[in-house]
Amino acid sequence: MKSKYYIIEESALPEIFEKVLKAKELLETGEAKTVAQAAESVNLSRSAFYKYRDLIQPLINFKTESVVTFHVTLHDRPGVLSKLLSVFQESGTNILTINQSIPLNGTALVTISVMMGDSDTGPENLIDKMEQSEGVIKVDFMAG
């Protein structure tokens, strides 16, 4: 039988599913070292954890947690990338990946993927701030 998937609001979930998700989070972040510790800290039996752990996963809220990838051409000078990255830190975005090419002819291409999260700054504002950052030649982006 083929699995079916549904998107439902968290408040409609039985409490056990919320506990399973919290226990999984504790394990992923290292706050709990074992399933027994994670289950105990959320008042859940280990058997319930094992029964439901593969059946429930958090869904990224794409309204507030969209992934955006920026392609930035930089001058190859010390500190340019560092100043660029400070733009993301100041905006409250979460950097997921950074890839930089080997500099050629005094420039380097950097690809940065970020989770926008609860940032009040949209991609367009980030582009404006990046373009104002010293050493940035060009900024392009794509959502998703």
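(ticket continues) Second input and output from the same batch:
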Amino acid sequence: MDPLLKLLASDASLSTPQLASMLNLTEAEVRDRIRQAERDRFVLGYRAVLNEEKLGRDLVRAMIEVKITPERGGGFDKLAERISKYSEVRSCHLMSGGYDLLVEVEGTNLREVATFVSEKLSTIQGVLSTATHFVLRAYKEQGVLMAGSAEDQRLAIAP
């Protein structure tokens, strides 16, 4: 992977001067390479990982296993793209195994998530079945540990 993209993926808050220093490039070169990566759609966006629990936001998240019938000429893609367009959907992944899609949904309460599943998701033509699993607590989000101290606490190595 390109070293610049690797740094941005691990910490998108790094400034252009910091990136330039770390990569032995000029700031102009870094800005140009970032713009090019965005144009080429290697970089699709920048997000902070928030600790919703500490912020006091009572969001309800659920992982929904979805079995679907692939469409002629579009396979799973058209249906997955349609599901992904709902504002409640945080992510949607094609999976191998016992179900086809794993859809992560977010709502303000259990009823909102349940309503999304029963009235929107399960009624889509091609959706065969759903299984909803509510997230009780996040311990790691996008590679970032959510609980405990900020310092690196590595696991002990057994001899």
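Agent notes: The longest helix spans residues 27-39. Residues 20 and 28 are 9 Å apart (CA to CA). Closing as not reproducible unless the customer responds.
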